[in-house]
Amino acid sequence: MGSGDSPQQRFGRLLNGHRTGVGMTQHELARAVPIAQSTISDLESGKKATRRAKIEQIDAALGAGGVILNSWDALFSPTGMIGYFREVAEDEQVAFEIREYALGLVPGLVQVEQYARAISELASRYASPGEIDQMVQARLFRQQILDRDHPPVMIVLLDESVLRRRFSDPAVMPTQIDHLLRLTHRPRITIQIIPTDTEDHAGLGGSFRLSTAPDSSPVAYVEGQKTGMSLKQPEIVASYERTFADLQGSALPVAASRSWMEEIRGNIT
After folding, report:
1. How many C-beta neighbours within 10 Å does residue 203 have?
2. What is the number of other CB atoms lying within 10 angstroms of the CB of residue 160?
3. So what CATH class is 82-267?
4. Is the CB of residue 145 less than 8 Å from the CB of residue 93?
5. For the ranges 63-77, 106-120, 233-247, which has the lowest average pLDDT?
6. CA 17 from centroid of its chain's CA atoms
7. Which of the given ranges, 3-7, 28-32, 51-55, 70-74, has the highest pLDDT on average?
8. Which part of the chain is CATH 1.10.260.40?
9. Which of 32, 150, 178, 194 is the most exposed place for a label (fewest CB within 10 A)?
10. Angle at alpha carbon of residue 259, lines to 258 and 263, rounded to 5°
11. Which CATH number fits domain 1-77: 1.10.260.40, 1.10.150.130, 2.40.30.260, 3.40.50.720?
12. Are strands 153-159 and 208-212 parallel, antiparallel or unpaired?
């Protein structure tokens, strides 16, 4: 996807790919919705958007399982999502694998509401309560991809320091760790811990994520305090993939990671 493309163009390519993938013509899709064939054509060419209700019907007609609808929401709905993150959120909707390494904070896709609210308030001290609510709901909305019938494979590597973070509300971290423990029992989610005493730590340069979609090369994403960047150059992405492999090699196995999280959880006072 070209970073300079409009949201309509990116959505149009996604829609076209799903329609042709199931062997349906524009005319057949238009009849199934129903909607004017010219509207389907305009959507796929990126000339215009349409009402969400029609996108919901298109998603159902294509048997897309929410991918089309969720992508539309990520692009066009006023969900409180930060502008630079919209392309990343769109990539999440079509990814079949997401690999994420976290050095400072629990990744957004596996945060509970209390944790998401706490870090949103810290990062946006001058935001109104309504704006904070929008930020939190946008993050929770993204998590719906993990509840699909066929969710993406997700591998999360957490630096131990992430789990030992303290908040003014003492209930935040216990609730968050409990959620992570529940997620470790899902068959397509892997959560591993990198102990703080790991030597030659390959991830001290910062958090990052790698997402892979069908018929697409992996994309790396790194985020600073106030902005983020998608990286698609093959040599740069390959470097992040090597770092991720090194980090996973340093991480505790899944069962040991679960036990370590349980011990950290039990020691929180």
Report:
1. 20
2. 18
3. alpha beta
4. yes
5. 63-77
6. 21
7. 28-32
8. 1-77
9. 150
10. 120
11. 1.10.260.40
12. unpaired
